Amino acid sequence: MSKLYVDVLHLIFEKFQGDKDDKKSLISCLSVNITWCELIVPILWKNPWEYLKIGKEKILLKVIISHFSDELRDNLSQDNEFLIDSYKRPLFNYISFWRHLNLERIERMFNAHIHFKEIKNDLLNLFINNNTKFTHLYIYQQFNRQIHLIPESKQCFSDIKFLSCNASIDDYVLIGLIEMCESIKELEIFIEKGNKNYGIIKLIKSSKKLFNISLIRTEFSFLKYSRNDESMESFCNILENSLINHSNTIKYFKLTKQPITKILFHLINLKILELDGSFQDMAWDRIENLSLPYLQILKAKSIPTKYLTNLIENTNGYLIEIKIDYIGHDEINNKKIIKAIYQNCPNLQYLNLMFRKSNILELEKLLIKCQYLNGLFFIIDSDDTINWDKLFEILTKFSPNNLFNFKFYSVNQIKLNSLKLFFDNWKVEHKHPMLLKFFRMKIVSEYVDLVESYKIEGVVKKFDHDLYGEDFEWI
User: Fold this and answer.
1) pLDDT score, position 413
2) Superkingdom of the source (predicted)?
3) 105-147 confidence digits (pLDDT tens)
4) Closest Cα to residue 284, out of 312, 264, 314, 313?
5) Does residue 87 surpass a pLDDT of 60?
6) How many CB atoms are located within 10 Å of the residue 189 CB?
7) Backbone angles phi, psi at 376, to 5 degrees
């Protein structure tokens, strides 16, 4: 088989990584022939956590242990019955394909099923050697091994692009990371009450170009501070200011606390912003009058809408995705943010937003102005008695041609006749078959039967109802 053919196949398979349905297709291609299998397996094993389902950790554990020496594997099998059939060497060196090394999840998995302390060195040597090359590294708070002293570590971590660590990381571990990880582009820092390691600042300064930043407060640190108020604020102040040196290159920024400084005002080239105000009562007034002219994606949770409205008004029309999770606000502020969206986001493709019952007519203006919409996620307040007939009528009449993906988060029941009328009108308008999903709403068998009948007619392509799921998994 020609090298060109193999190279082309590899490029095609690499493209399959981004989409869930494509990944299923990739898995189905494993059995085509040996060449396809040899090309696909390394792709699937880049990040094994991505496919690991809850309760299936033992399967991955057995694969890892199968790479140990015969002697160590036999010793482990004597004390752990579930390893008795794990004596065979795997067909591939799966660990050599890993690009995501999550030390916390590995240790937690071993602690749950194996006497872990006895084999810590063997486990580290299994992952840190000349056969492995990681791009993503996850260091947990209690980790205290000086992995930079392992001879092969520099080669193993020289291509690290993503680092996740705790702000109280051990000094010796941090020193090693600064030595080894000069190519970091994405940094995720967990900030908790207690000791903070100011050496993190040196790590930030030693990085040549940072593109993605996540500053994450844990749930406990959202509690009101007592004596540690000044200590926490001082650390966050220095931390945020150290990022200003990377202000021209940072494209993604995530905050789960109100910033101490005006760091966001420096990020003139920011394209993606995630704000999460859960578990805290801060006002987020430090983002007032924030202008991000090149912002493309805005995700917000528990952030006052008046600041989000102001932010949307201060963008230059590049926003393509807006996701604003439920936060209580009145009809006036709801109208303001809807208006800000259709007046400032002509290129919007995906929108997740609460619509109050008095502002359903504003939806008509939004659909007319935002002609590139592909997906709408409606959050309906439990206190609102929504006029479903009117809502469905507006969607049918004014939805752009590419808009046929709808989600509804509501506890309010839809009348069966209202849903039937929606489907009938959609059919008359010769619209694209819709993708429809309901959250929290009680769906009885009559609704399912109705949807199935319209699936046959080509009005509905896909229908789901549950409590979970990605906001825009159709992307």
Assistant:
1) 81
2) Eukaryota
3) 998 888 877 765 677 788 888 999 988 999 999 998 888 888 8
4) 264
5) no
6) 19
7) -130, 130
Please state whether 234 falls in left (phi above 0), alpha (psi between -120 and 50) or beta: alpha
Phi, psi of 206, deg, nearest 5: -75, -15
Rounded to an integer, what distance in angstroms lies between the CA atom of residue 224 and that of residue 226?
Answer: 7
Distance in angstroms (rounded) separating the CA atoms of residues 235 and 201: 10
pLDDT band at 192 (very low <50, low <70, confident <90, very high): confident
Quick one: tokens of 227? 């004596």
- Please tell me whether residue 284 adopts helix, strand or coil conformation: coil
CA 148 – CA 126 distance, rounded (Å): 15
CA separation for the pair 73, 412 (Å, rounded):
56
Q: Is the pLDDT of residue 357 over 70?
A: yes
Cα–Cα distance, 449 to 455 (Å, whole number) = 10
116 closest CA partner among 164, 79, 162: 79
pTM attached to this predicted model: 0.88
Q: Where are the domains of the chain?
A: 1-44
